[in-house]
Amino acid sequence: MARYGDLYVNDVTGERAVVLRGDEDAPGEPLLVYLHVRPGGAVSGEHLHPALQERFLVLEGTLDTRVDGVERALAKGEAVTVPAGVWHDWWNAGSEPVDVLIELTPPDPRFEMAIATGFGLANAGRTDAKGVPSLLQLALIGSEFSDVLRRKHPPAFVQAIAFGVLGFIARRRGLKAIYPEYLGPHGSVTPDPAVMAAAGLEPVAR
After folding, report:
1. Distance (Å, rounded) from C-alpha 120 to C-alpha 127?
2. Element (H, E) at 120
3. Contact predicate 45/151, CB 8 Å
4. What domains lie within the chain, and their CATH numbers?
């Protein structure tokens, strides 16, 4: 479960995420995460969350987004809400970092596991330059976490047909759907008070 101050870093995609309010801190409340994205950074491909809503509020910089096929550049103070089941993508095309407040409703430990797994594979050098795992590895984690995260590519019908066969091959080659060593946060930090204020939260004594 996510906790205040948990830090996750993806060295490949350029993402640095700090939990401001976790599901352990406030059960039933939306998960709040501060995301810092370096220039050229991006989430690892267009995707959707079957039962999770995301809201992105830009604190600094400009975040380029694609939601349900519509592209929009979000400037400081602008926000977009992505309902559950809607395809979306985002990236930082600018020359300056982007700071974003992300609200996830409802929080789901399975989603946290999926993100940690993707970050862990990327940091271990087991993805391409965009943070996407090999097709064999993708077959395993795509099937395992389809309840919280689905990628647009390969197409759903290809995933439905191929992932079972590819998953069998992947396991024979020693790949896993879940790697326990990747699931924990990469550290614990004290969130910036200004970011906490922007999120409408009070600093937490540690």
Report:
1. 10
2. helix 109-123
3. yes
4. 6-108+186-198 (2.60.120.10), 112-180 (no CATH)
